[in-house]
Amino acid sequence: MTRPVLRFAPSPNGHLHLGHARSALLNDALVRSSGGRLLLRIEDIDPGRSRPDLIDAIADDLAWLGLRFETPARRQSEHLDVYRAQVEAFSARGLVYPCFCSRGTIARAVAAAAERSGIPPACDPDGAPLYPGCCRALAPGEAEARRAAGVPHTWRLDMARALAAAPGPHRVRSVPVVRSGEGRGLSSHRIGADRVEAADPARWGDPVIARRDVPTSYHLAVVMDDAAQGVTHVVRGADLRASTDLHVLLQALIGVPSPRYHHHELVLDEAGAKLAKSRGSRSLADLRAAGESPASLRERLGFP
Q: Is 64 in contact with 294 (CB distance < 8 Å)?
């Protein structure tokens, strides 16, 4: 059996919180029980929010938790040319198109279509209305002229053409995490047997795979990084489960293997909402300053 390769991949746009700690500790526990490898990836494609001091803070928090990763850590910002080349390859195959729509333009188009039909707009798994395809039918000459004029644009995957190029059926190979008992240390977590689940990439509509400000998106970068790093098991939060449907399609289009996936439960706040940097959830640094110890935090999260 291939030696498992797992990764923890935070974004340096805020401080780590308990949800990140659970994910990092679970990845570490599974590596320890399987004899696998544990990689760290810094997902710093957001130029407006990623900061060097937050990368240092991530390293401090992970060291405080007692976690060790193979070095050097992969940084997405150092591989933008690779992502750009893949978008260009998709363009050459007719699988993507430039989209010049602003959020306001999309919102108005969606609202107008809903008013005409009397039907509420369909939404993607994140709750955003599906892109109505305003730029999909632009004549190639018009689209090229706008690009040549420097009009800001994203690149969207043409879902219909993508599914024709990789018709599937698309499947997600998922694995459970089995706990052999409480109080037995980190080895009590292990990877269970594969199970196959159906994927539905079409529910994402025509997603953005390259942003205006960087030549990629989370979806494209994470798929390419997992392949480049030889990741065999992706262990991440349940909020990313729906993204996997799109990821297996991108893997098929690029021609790279699909890892096995496990999506763990999220750590929730007192109101039952998931922890988030954007909402100012209490950080690991705050807990450390308040006197929390690595041992007590591990125990609180189920990793004695």
A: yes
Interatomic CA distance for residues 174 and 276, integer angstroms: 25
Instruction: Return d(Cα 282, Cα 263) in angstroms, integer.
Output: 22
Q: Which long-range contacts (CB under 8 A, 24 or more apart) does 101-105 make?
A: 101/131, 101/134, 101/135, 105/134
pLDDT, average across residues 177-188: 62
Task: Count Cβ atoms within 10 A of the Cβ of residue 47 and give its class: 0-12 exposed, 13-18 middle, 19 or more buried.
Answer: exposed
pTM exceeding the 0.85 threshold for the entire prediction: yes
Phi first, then psi: what are they for 103, rounded to 5°?
A: -60, -35
* Count of CB atoms situated within 10 Å of the CB of 100: 17
257-273: string of b/e by CB count within 10 Å (b at 16+)? ebbbbbbeebbeeeeee
First to last CA, the chain: 28
Specify the fold of 5-100+135-300: Rossmann fold (3.40.50)
d(CA 219, CA 76): 12
Encoding tokens for residue 120? 């509420």
pLDDT band at 276 (very low <50, low <70, confident <90, very high): confident
In tens, the pLDDT along 13-56 reads 999 999 999 999 999 999 999 999 999 999 999 988 899 999 99
Residue 16 CA to its chain's centroid (Å)? 16
- Cα Rg of the chain (Å, integer): 21
Q: Which two tokens stand for residue 208?
A: 């953005």
